[in-house]
Design brief:
This protein is mainly alpha-helical. It has a single domain, classed as Winged helix-like DNA-binding domain superfamily/Winged helix DNA-binding domain (Arc Repressor Mutant, subunit A, Orthogonal Bundle), CATH 1.10.10. It has six helices and two strands. It has a two-stranded antiparallel ribbon with strand order 1-2.
Length: 98
Amino acid sequence: MTAMLFADSASADSRYYWCESMAELNPRITVEPGKMGGKPCIRGLRFTVYDLASYLASGMTEDEILSDFPDLEKEDFRAVYEFFASIPERIAVLEASR
């Protein structure tokens, strides 16, 4: 769903705006244009929300992920869940602005 939204976006600016507005949900989600291709990251780490979601989708538990990636914190999971839960609302806002 996210990749399709990016492909349909009018420009790189709108993609950056979308990511930046998503990051406003939780201060644990950061967006820096020069880091990880401007993708939303967790607390400025070189660990994107998509990385964490991929590990969860593969069947890893939160505890397994925390064990493998000690820089992550338990609260980071909630931030990522909030990030993805708000996607439908953000898409509606972007579509309304076209």
